[in-house]
Amino acid sequence: MVAYKLTVALESRSYSIHIGSGLIKSGGDSLLLPRLRGHQGVVVTNETVAPLYLSQVQAWLADAGYKSSAIVLPDGEEYKNHAVLLRLYQNLYAAGLQRNGFICALGGGVVGDLAGFAAATYMRGLDLIQLPTTILAQVDSSIGGKNGFNLEVGKNLIGTTYQPRVVISEVDFIKSLPEREVLSGLGEVVKYGLLAGDDFISFLEMNRAEILARNPRSLAIMAHFCSRIKADYVVRDEFDLLGVRAALNLGHTVGHALEKMYDYRGMAHGEAVAVGLVCALSLSFAMRFLPETSLSRALRLVELYGLPMQIPEDADVDELIALMRRDKKAGETLSMILLHGLGDPYLEDKVDVGLLREQLLRCKKPVTYSA
Ligand code: NAD
Ligand code: GLY
Q1: Last residue of some domain: 126, 145, 177?
Q2: Is 81 within a domain?
Q3: Are residues 292 and 157 both part of a single domain?
Q4: Which of 71, 86, 133, 194 is the most exposed place for a label (fewest CB within 10 A)?
Q5: Where in the sequence is the domain holding 354, given as residue range(s)?
Q6: 29: pLDDT confidence band, cut at 50, 70 and 90?
Q7: Which mutation among 188, 238, 249 tests ligand 2's pocket best, with the greatest number of atoms within 8 A of CB?
Q8: Which of 125, 158, 177 represents a domain boundary (last residue)?
């Protein structure tokens, strides 16, 4: 069994992140210490994950002295909405969940975001266990307390920041993840590499084969690196007010615009983020902040993991910029996370739209780097 533990130090809202292989199988209640407030809870999951892991998780909870029932949601981003949330509240009520009850979110980011919001709001706040089952959720969405749901006009427009009591990243759950979801998660992982710099980038460069083969030990080390990086940003700026946590959005300004442009059906989140990373690298280089050697290394890393690197040929760059600005009447500049160097992100709040446009057009073709 491989196992790591780290702490997200947020005073009274502090919690542990456990990462490893065989965590859920091994049973016992040591992962759920300090104890939850009550002994009864609900596992919220979806119709894909339930047949794979629900009974194992409920048996593990029972072993630790917690009774649970289950609520199974439909699978898909399109169900991260207020109608499904309302049904979830009704089912929590029907399950007899009390104020001291808990919710265990078992699934990817969609389940985690919706169940997290329900935990934050039902009876003014229940204990929340995050049990992420995708790479994206293990390295990102289960950590830091952001939750929420989509409105028709946009993603994640409603939400709160509500920290879980514990995050348990069981890397054995990754073995059943579809290939495309693995790739999507790796887009976020590469983002962490660029945020953190040499140590993690070297790990990713040297362990590509093991990671792609889903070797549990390599997945656990990778998730540990990412969780540590994310926890550090969260601790410094829990409520995303200081421009520090915003660095986690590296690659996301272009990424979100691409997802929206294709109505969330063209590119998986992490794929769009990967293209967004290439655009942010290209712009950082064009602004003469990022040295060429760093640009080359970063682009190679994106390529090494087989992530998409180009803006699709049919994408209209002006529409993309309009989506990035959200408000077409905004001025001639916009904000983006860029890099002064690998491991050195910063918030550029005066990105010149002309230069951005030039770089986006460049990113429709393979962005080249020196040998
Ligand atoms: P997802 O939750 O839709 O999961 C992807 C697919 O994999 C789904 O079909 C799911 O049923 C399936 N799946 C999950 N675990 C599996 C497993 N172990 N085996 C087989 N199939 C499995 O997608 P995601 O990429 O995990 O999360 C995306 C969501 O996360 C988006 O809604 C995004 O807005 C949100 N998000 C939130 C944060 C945050 O900080 N709260 C950060 C990043 C992303
Ligand atoms: N996923 C960005 C954040 O948690 O702040």
Answers
A1: 177
A2: yes
A3: no
A4: 86
A5: 250-362
A6: low
A7: 249
A8: 177
Q: Residue 97 is which amino acid?
A: L
Mutate to test the pocket of ligand 1, among 77, 80, 110 (most ligand atoms within 8 A of CB): 110
Are 10 and 128 within one domain?
yes
Do 254 and 172 have their domain in common? Answer: no
pLDDT tens, residue by residue, 307-344: 999 999 999 999 999 999 875 445 577 999 999 999 99
Q: How many independent structural domains does the chain possess?
A: 2
Residue-level pLDDT at 328:
46
- Alpha carbon distance 216, 202 (integer Å): 19
Q: How close is the Cα of 142 to the center of ligand 2, in Å?
A: 10
- Is residue 308 reached through a cis peptide bond, with omega within 30 degrees of 0 on the bond before it? no
Pick the range with the lowest mean pLDDT from 227-231, 245-249, 280-284, 288-292: 288-292
Q: Is the CB of 252 under 6 A from ligand 2?
A: no
Q: Number of C-alpha atoms within 13 angstroms, CB side, residue 19?
A: 27
Residues 6+ apart with CB under 8 A from 238: 10, 13, 144, 145, 161, 163, 245
168 and 266 part of one domain: no
Q: Which two tokens stand for residue 30?
A: 């040591």
Task: Say if residue 87 is exposed, middle or buried (CB neighbours under 10 Å; 0-12, 13-18, 19+).
Answer: middle
- Please give the distance of CA 314 from its chain centroid, rounded to a whole number: 28
| Together in a domain, 171 and 30 | yes
**Residues 51-85 pLDDT 10s:** 999 999 999 999 999 999 999 999 999 999 999 99
Phi, psi at residue 75, to the nearest 5°? -95, 125
The domain that holds 349 is classified in CATH as 1.20.1090.10
Q: Has residue 74 been placed in a domain?
A: yes
Q: Could you give the percent of the chain with pLDDT greater than 70? A: 96
Ligand with the closest atom to the CA of 247: 2
Q: Which amino acid is at 183?
A: L
Residues 17 and 130 in one domain: yes
Q: Which two tokens stand for residue 84?
A: 């499904």
Please report which helix (H) or strand (E) contains residue 73, including its range.
strand 67-73
Per residue in 120-158, pLDDT (tens digit) is 999 999 999 999 999 999 999 999 999 999 998 888 999
b/e map of 232-246 (b: 16 or more CB within 10 Å)? bbbbebbebeeebbb
pLDDT tops 60 at residue 171: yes
